Amino acid sequence: MNEPERYEKSFVVSWDQLHRDARALAWRLDRNNSSEVEWKALVAIARGGMAPAMIIARELGIRTVDTISVKSYDHQLHVGVEILKYPDKEITGDGEGILIVDDLVDTGKTLEVVRERYPRAHFATVYAKPKGRPLVDTFITEVSQDTWIFFPWDTGLKYVQPFRMTT
Question: Which of the residues 74, 94, 102, 146 is marked catalytic?
Fold first, then answer.
């Protein structure tokens, strides 16, 4: 196993923020795509890509949605990339006309493996870090490499003490 990377910063994403950012990504994909090109299908990289993929599929009117299940993390520890489930081969082919969506590109290891399988697909992520950025075609927000992103499915709401307690 690899040594854990140091994450000096954190970025907490709420459901509301994720929804806004995923809609912004859909808008960017729609604007960057000529109107004569229609997506044949959307493939979400499970699990993180499933929530943004649902929003993007709705916004772009994509009805054919599938998943590719990839494991590359064990909590905050990068492990080897393993594909656990592939989407329907008849739909995806080599990726032409396929939109592949994930929540984040970090080191790019996951996208490298998926891109090998679907070289003609369009890769979109909501968030991108510098190491993985060259592997994604469209994204919304770049965050520093030393930032750990806490997605809404990783967190819960709880009371936080104020910085200064008053009596």
Answer: 102
